Amino acid sequence: MRALNRIPLFVRVLLFFFALAACAPIPIPTSDTPIPPAPLATPTLAPLPDGGAITLGILARDADAFLRNALFDSLLQPDPNTGAMQPALAESFQVAGDALTLTFKLRANVKWHTGDALTADDVVATINAFSAPDFRGAPAADFGTLSKVIALDAQTVQLGFRDAYCPALTFIGAMKIFPRALAAHAARGDAPTIGTGALKLISRDANQITLARNPDYFRGKPPIEEWTLKLYPDAKALRAAFAAQAIDAMPLAPGEMDAAKKIAGAKIFAGDSNEIVTLIFNLADATLNDARVRQAVGLAIDRNVLLNDLGGAARGVNANALPGFWATAPNISGAAFEPNHARQLLVQAGFRDNGDGIMRRANKPLALALETLGDDPLLEPLAFRLREHLVAIGIQVQLNLNDRAGLLSHAFQHRFDLLLLARKIPLDPDQRWYWQSDQNALAEGFNFGSYSNARVDQLGKQLNRVGACDAPARAALFDEIQKQIVTDAPALFLLAPKKYFAATARVSGIAPSAYAGEWENLWQWRAGK
Question: Which residue from 325, 448, 445, 453 is spatially nearest to 461, judged by alpha carbons?
Fold first, then answer.
């Protein structure tokens, strides 16, 4: 068995969906026919002089994520608009009809920062190091039933699997590749500094990281010559540095846009985040196990008000995926705002209003506890607005504003009625962590609401075993799963917050993406004078 399968489920999924940078699923070819080499995208940028320098500010805790994307590349890269995986270090890839063999053909012009050429041996060493039986570090990928990885020649890597498991192809394609001499060190948790990425590391201390562009970068020489990364302890310090003109650009968390707009000279770059704000019902509770009560809650929420509160800093969603995601069907119905119908459903469920505006059953008020993250600029105001909406149809709501550790503890122990949180979009259409009945274990499973539907369980297994991992077939199954979930309403999908960068007027080319992440297009950024 590969090492990932021995790591507790809680640790595995937490690392994938909460700690790792967002990546995206691969539309796998539909036959044994290789995907032809794809030309690299050529950015259309305003003509600015080559060279220059930039000072970027980020939170200290995000420094390693920045370096992973600046210094290293993956075999495949996500389309920033759809999440469809495209060639990167690999110029093409091929999936066998039985989905048991995956072959990558590497580009011939890729060099490490040392000047040495990338070869199939580097890829094999990286995959073997992170999937080794004695591996105990942070998972780099879900290897599924990987049984072998070999170099067919200097530019060709072939992977074999015991059983078809399509999500493994997504994760392996998106993992960072290290030089073969450093792969084992990376797997032990050391931080290699030699990669194929757009930037080279020059120096690092507790407060600052210095980098330079990689003139031999396979996508083309990055325009910005010198990079200084300044590290800050919190968002307040980061914004103060920008206001003092100590940095040229900074990423913003969802909910921070208004604060950034107040900074003189700030130019805002926007993109979707890789999160869906979700209201989860605890179906282990007898009241919420009644679909009519859940539907009433959904009909009581005016999503236009929620979006207006955020002033354009989010967009509505109808499923647990962003509009435009390659596997998302456009025909999933949106949620309606019908408070009168909501009250009718509560009456059908046995509740009555005795004239004081509170719905009761057997003289007991309909009261629910809503858990969310306190002091969060997005979730806390949203929770107060949701309480208003539910009170309007006769539901009493107690807000429990928790810290992150407390919220996660209550979530994994299923100690809530309603749980409001922003959940990462999975890297693949496979969402069994959230919905399948076998993920309902206390302290481990991410099926926080105890949802169980035999049809969803069956569809989830089919999704991961599609012949040749055919993209249209997987998308059709994903669509059917999402429609069933929307009908059953174990959770309500409210909105997708946007992510932002603030920058000075001299910086251009920043393009945060839900799928490609914040840093994937560093090689396209420019900094004028």
Answer: 453
